[in-house]
Amino acid sequence: MLGIPKDYSLEAIIPVGRPAEKKRKEPRLSLREVLFYNQWNNKAP
Questions:
Q1: From CA 32, how far away is CA 8, in angstroms rounded?
Q2: Alpha helix locations (H) across 1-45?
Q3: pLDDT in tens, 7-37
Q4: Which one-letter DSSP state was computed for residue 43?
Q5: Among 38, 40, 37, 35, which residue's Cα sits nearest to residue 3?
Q6: Distance separating alpha carbons of residues 29 and 40, to the nearest angstrom
Q7: Phi/psi at 36 (nearest 5 deg)?
Q8: Which of 15, 24, 36, 39 could form a disulfide linkage to 3, CB 3.0–4.6 angstroms apart?
Q9: For 39, how many CA atoms within 13 A lie in the half-sphere containing its CB?
């Protein structure tokens, strides 16, 4: 339906709680680099 390759699976992870110590912030990819729109490999506008 969404064109997701068969070797990928959809999963959700919901963390609960607070970390014991503060971690250093890691650099993140921008949302445009990781978001697809309506179908796999269809970049968001």
A1: 20
A2: 31-34
A3: 988 787 677 888 888 888 889 998 888 888 8
A4: B
A5: 40
A6: 18
A7: -110, 150
A8: 39
A9: 3
Are 32 and 42 within 8 A, CB to CB? no
Six token digits for residue 27: 């650099």
What single DSSP character describes residue 36?
Answer: B
Q: Which two tokens stand for residue 37?
A: 């729109």
Q: Determine the residue type at 21.
A: E
**Helices then strands, each counted (H, E), the chain:** 1, 0
DSSP the chain: -----TT---------S--SSPPPPPP---HHHH-BSSSTT-B--
Q: Rounded distance, CA 11 to CA 5, Å? A: 14
Phi, psi (5° rounding) for residue 32?
A: -65, -25
